[in-house]
Amino acid sequence: MTFMHLTFYATFMLSSLGLAFHRTHLISALLCLESMMLSMYIALSMWPVYTQTASLTLMPILTLAFSACEAATGLAILVASARTHGSDHLHNLNLLQC
C-alpha cells in the first residue's frame, strides 16, 4: 500500500468516525459527509493515473456532481431545520414529531 492510498483511506475513515461520534450539530455531520466525498473524489481522480488508463475518467466528474447535489440538499435541510426548530442540533430533529 502506497502512502497515497493510506492517506485516502485514513481521510475517509476519519470522516466516517467523525460522522459517527460527533453527532451534535447538523453542520458537523454535513462537513463530515463532504470530506468523505472529497476523499472519494480525489481517490477516483488519481486512480487512472496509477493504473495508467483513461477508461474511468468520467467517474470523478459524476462523483463531484453527486457531491454538489448532496451539499445543496444538506444545506437546504439545514436552513429549513434552523427556521422551524431554531437551531441545528440533531437531538431536536425527530421524525415522529413531524
From TrEMBL:
Topological category with respect to the lipid bilayer: Multi-pass membrane protein
Main localisation: mitochondrion
Enzyme class: translocase
GO cellular component, one term: respiratory chain complex
Keyword line: Electron transport, Membrane, Mitochondrion, Mitochondrion inner membrane, NAD, Respiratory chain, Translocase, Transmembrane, Transmembrane helix, Transport, Ubiquinone
Family membership: Belongs to the complex I subunit 4L family.
Protein name stated in the entry: NADH-ubiquinone oxidoreductase chain 4L
Gene source species: Mionectes oleagineus (ochre-bellied flycatcher)
Gene behind the chain: ND4L
